[in-house]
Each structure stands twice: as C-alpha cells, then as structure tokens.
Amino acid sequence: MTENNQFKLLYRILRRFQEAGILQEMMLIGSWCLHFYRFAFEDHDEMPAFRTMDVDFLIPDVHQVKHEVDIPKLLKEEGFLSSYNRASGMVKFDHPDLRVEFLVPELGRGHDKPLEIKKLGIRAQGLRYLNFLASYPRTISHENLHVRVPEPAAFALHKLIVSARRLNKEKAGKDLEMAVGLLDFLYKKPSEVGRIKSILRAIPKKWLETILLVSEKHFPKLNEMAKNF
Fold first, then answer.
1. How far apart are CA 112 and CA 126, in angstroms?
2. Do the Cβ atoms of 203 and 154 come closer than 8 Å?
3. Distance CA 161, CA 179 (A)
4. DSSP codes joined into one string, 61-98
5. Are the CB atoms for 13 and 23 separated by under 8 Å?
6. Which of 3, 173, 200, 224 has a CA positioned 20 to 30 A from the CA of residue 95?
7. Which stretches does DSSP call E strand in the chain?
8. pTM of the full structure
9. Least confident range of 28-37, 46-55, 199-208
C-alpha cells in the first residue's frame, strides 16, 4: 500500500459514483474529509492530516436515493472484494489499499441490523450521531469532483462526542487528536468560529454536555465560548 495508490483509487471511486449520479446522494465522512477540507482553505498547510484505509460513506436519507446502481459490481471492477460478517450482517468492501463501508444515521432502538438499500445493492450500518453530520453538509469541488462532506466545525465537534463513546482507546485517541487539531486550525478563522458557536447552540443538551466534558481537558476554548449559552 502506498499513499499515492490510495489517492488514485479513492478518486476513481468518487468519479464513478459521480458519473453514476449517486455521489450527491452520499456524504463522505471519516478522516478522508480532512483531505478535502484542505481545498476549502488557502492556508491548508496548517490543516492536520489524517488518513486511514477506511473510507466511510454516509447515506443521510435512504428515501432520497433516486438512482439504481450496482455498487458491489462497480467496486469489484476496481479490485474490491466483499466481506460478510455473519454476526452483524454487515458487508464491507476490501482492497489492498482501501476499505469501503456504507453507513446511515441510527435506525432506532431494536433495529441493530444493517439496512438493506436495494437500489444500491448494499447494506448500510446505522450508527448514533450521524444525523448530526448529515445536518451540516458542505460540498467541496476539486478536480471536477463535487464531494459532499460535513462542515469542518460539525466534523470536529462530532469527533469530540464519539471519542467519549469509544470503547477502543486507540480509536478514541485518534478521534480526539483529529478533533483538537482541526479545532485549533478553525479557531484562527472568525467565520469558522461563528459556525462552531452556532452549531453548539443548536445541538441537544446531552450532546453539548458530552462535548464540553471532553473539551474541558483537551480544548478549553470551547468551554469559554459556551459560558454564555
């Protein structure tokens, strides 16, 4: 695996999704968002860089999926193999350079099995807090691609929340490092600070409490901001 191969493969997938008309019906989430955030800011060299093999696509609203596309076939043509987890019912797509997974906002209590999206031929896992990301979309255009991602401010705050919920300490540490690095970058930009403040005011109280509990130790500027809420 090389970084260059990862970039090339990811861009091929995104282009094929866009050509098929489904890229706009998805949201790229996870650490690869940081790669695309770099194209939204002039001083992107100060942006933290985190990349993994995992490429996560969120489908914000399955009822808004209009195109019928055989995603497993498309990914197979790019060298991916599907792997089925009997215990969870989840299907992931593996390649030596990347792993692709599809997600949806939490399906509700008693619905812990992945959601089958027949139009796309996939199963998507429901996870908590993804509706938060879906509520703050931003489209970033680069190299004739139009990639929908969460707003950077929402992405960073979401990482603070999930870092507190992770059972895996290593993953929690990476989430926290990513969140703090991105917040530190965004705090140098008045418009982004305004977005952080607006989002903090709008989120549920329990989520805000979780964020401030984490930020009190790792990014106390947020707690200063929230004093007047």
1. 7
2. no
3. 10
4. -GGG------HHHHHHHTT-EEEE-TTT--EEEE-SS-
5. no
6. 173
7. 27-29, 54-58, 81-84, 91-94, 99-105, 115-117, 122-127, 137-142, 145-150
8. 0.92
9. 46-55
Calculate ∠ Cα 161-32-64, nearest 5°: 80
DSSP letter at 114 equals P
Q: Is 213 helix (H, G, I), strand (E, B) or coil?
A: helix
Contact 222, 197 (CB under 8 A): no
Could you tell me which residues are beta bridge partners of residue 54?
Answer: 99
Query: Which residues lie across from 58 on neighbouring strands?
Result: 27, 103
- Of the given ranges (71-75, 80-84, 130-134, 216-220), which has the lowest mean pLDDT? 80-84
Helix 169-186 and helix 205-218, axial crossing angle in degrees, nearest 10: 90
- Provide the sign of the torsion angle of the four alpha carbons 166, 161, 189, 52, taken in this order: positive
As a whole number, the mean pLDDT across the chain is 91
Answer positive or negative: Cα dihedral of 36, 38, 39, 41. Answer: positive
Q: 204: which residues sit within 8 A by CB, 6+ positions away? A: none
- The string of pLDDT tens digits covering residues 104-148 is 998 665 456 889 999 999 999 999 999 999 999 999 999 999 999
pLDDT band per the 50, 70, 90 thresholds, residue 226: confident
Tell me the β-bridge partners of 140: 147
